[in-house]
Amino acid sequence: MGVIYKHPSKVNQKTVNNHPVLSTAQGGLIYTDRKVIDIWNAAATDPSLTTGVPFPTNQERDIFAQAVLGCLVEAGLLQRQSDEQHPSPKIAGPSGFLVSVIIVCHNSLDWLKICLPSLKAQQYSPIETILVDNASEEKALEWLQDYHPDVQLYRLDQPGSLASAINFGITKASGEYFLLLNPDTQLEPDSISEMVGVVLKHSNCAAVAAKLKFLWAPSFLNGLGNYVGGISWGTDSALGHLDLGQFDHWKVLPSACFAAALIPTTAWKDIGELDEGFPMYYEDSEWCYRARLMGYQVLAAPGAVIFHAFSGQKTTSAASSIEPLKLRRVAYGRLRFVSLLLDQSALIRFLFAYFLEDFLRIIVALFSGRWSHLSAHIKAWSDFRQSLSEIRKSRQAIQARRKIDDRELLSTQRQVPVPLIRHGYPLLTSDVIENEYLPLILSGKTKALPEVLPVAPDSQEFTKDIRRKSWVKRLMRIWQVEGLTAMLHRFSRLVEWHLMRY
Fold first, then answer.
1. What does pTM read for this prediction?
2. Are residues 432 and 344 part of one domain?
3. pLDDT in tens, 77-100
4. Region at 223 (left for phi over 0; alpha for psi -120 to 50; beta for the rest)
5. Based on the structure, what is the number of domains in the chain?
6. pLDDT tens, 333-347?
7. Is residue 292 a part of any domain in this protein?
8. Strands, E, within 18-171: which ranges?
9. Are 212 and 284 in contact (CB under 8 A)?
């Protein structure tokens, strides 16, 4: 008898900007297309889809449909009626080393009501929690005293940079390890145990990155670390990918996202504090790349799953244009980042690319009348020029401790896949399933999916055939199925991804 499917509660088909999407039970959105929607609709009503062979006359359509069903189930958008949840027993992790959790918050009381209970439910001990209130308007002290009296609260009278607030919090910590944590996160019970377990195996570890998943789409990756490339902004690694276990073999990362990162106290003291010259953004990447420049490693802990609201977004409204203040900060941040870390030849190449990109953005802002964005770019370069003297001094100190060249520093990010995200939401389209996930599934690089039939003798050749499809053919198919706008978006992200990895 075949598998019977049903649509989970609160998962519905919607349309956003004339594009089909599926809502998650947690209130998020997943971008998809009509092919996937057709299979999703048929899965709960069409018996032919329950046999595992929905298209018996064509091998490619057959395997594709199976992969769609499997991915929909793994995404939480479809449910097998025969599924029974049998959580695997958790093996107790290491304990005994004090972990100081540092949380910097600003008007984050609603998020803390999710984050702090998940900290209290950790299997690991001992833990101390230090909350740095970065001049919030709301009053969290009374709530903390009632529900979390063990939390140490330090209130800053004037709002400062994220880097300065984290540095302050660490001065109040007494643990052998620091866990830097965003308030808009929710930890699995074994998250800290998994991270400590990784760091204990490596003496030259600077930081351990957790596997971040979207709080509102918990089957999709917010990222496993992050990286900075020669174009665009720094971004999370594997952003928007459905978590099928395909990245669980990652060991070494370009950088850790400090939304959830564990740092040994000894490494922090040797590498130094966060650079408070970053008003916000890039401070975590700069610290991690600096650490690697000095001979340390940044490691992955894929078993440490932490859910993240991603930019503090709690609603399902897609992000439109980047806010001018954030634009000014990220445009300045990447200039400061490369000026501190890269050698002369790479520095010139990156700065020239950033200049061209910003110049084009200024032209676009000029012709579209977005004066605030035009001003933000100009102010970012002005900020950079004014801070050059201070940057040179910091650069000299960092470069004096360099142990690896830029080729090695930047090589790690070549493993990072293209982001699968649109308007801030993950992509689960027929193209993504067929060309990104299906080859991995067939080659055994993911968890096993019951929908996909056992590997046939010629399946390796079939997998190669899928991989051989040129991007021109892929883009044309995206145009046919999803429309011109989707095709142009995917093409621009592909070009951006290729340029960012070097």
1. 0.91
2. no
3. 999 876 655 566 666 566 789 999
4. left
5. 3
6. 999 999 999 999 999
7. yes
8. 19-23, 29-31, 79-80, 99-105, 127-134, 152-156
9. no
